[in-house]
Amino acid sequence: MSRIFFFFLALIASSALFAQTQMANSDFEQWSSTGTGDAIPKYWHSYGDADCRLTGVYAWGCSMMKKNHSNRVAGHSGYGCEIYSKSLAGNLVNGVITTGQMRTASVDDKSSENYTYTDKNNSCGHNAAMAFTGCPDSVYFWCKFDMKKASNVAVAKFHLHENIAYRDVSSHKSSTAQKGKVGNAFCEFTDPNDHKWHRYKFKFTYYDEQNNVVKKSTRKPSYVLAAFSTNKITKGGSAGDKLVIDDIVMVYNKRLSYIEVDGNPLPGFHPDVHEYEYACLNTDGQLPLFTAATQSPNATVTVEQASAENGYTARFVVHHDDGEKTYSVRLSNALESLTIK
Predict the structure, then answer these.
(1) How far apart are CA 135 and CA 298, in angstroms?
(2) Among 139, 257, 283, 311, whose Cα sits 20 to 30 Å from the Cα of 195?
(3) Which fold has domain 21-251?
(4) Taking the model in full, what pTM does it have?
């Protein structure tokens, strides 16, 4: 009985680990209500559960934050999340949705006391921390605009970070000097003014412990802090600006950049073609030697050389955080008497 129980726990742990390479509820199909505001997507947060710390005469602003400024609407596929800006008491409030905890402690919109953060210790009781362990190469998502001015620029930020209460401050700069940052994707996109769905693609940048940009991730994150806003500037844009978001996908590039045979390019190679045949014309009694390299610096490749035991087929298994992809090259005219170099 205990053996079955431990196997069940291991299965759950394995499934949870796999799920952390994609964001929870990234298709916005699961929704829940919070406070007196509109519904919000499960695992996401907005004004309705913000941590408002305004005091004195400014405390009235806390009651204004009860509205989430988000709606469940028809999306790219199924449902999507619509965020919208509003004018409250003469102040423009951007539409925002985030995986973290929103904190407001100053009426100055540029104050460093206002930020969104990963509440890893659940200090506010909203479970505003999204576990994430992958190092994706890029992020894709679908959006549809309904802006008062086509020149308005929306923003999305995806911060991969270690086990800390990472902050996303109001500044829209693409990088910060915070300790524990692993990588980020900083996304600005403009309304095409056609009221259609568009897919946006942005690359991740990775950093070392000193916040220097590195080609390959040197650490694994513990969380992702993501946020979308109707405008890249706090209080920017116009009241009634709307942005619908759907189908966020973290992309792990498992393509090979090349396969070489005895140091020469494999004829006809294309990264999206996974099976090949190669005429083995060697006359020196040896099988050719294969090498390969990945497109992504965060992926690795294992090469199994062709042999009689594997049917004279070389295999190349590309490993990335979300799984594997296999390429193969079968030798034609291979002889049993040939040997590996």
Answers:
(1) 7
(2) 139
(3) Jelly Rolls (2.60.120)
(4) 0.86
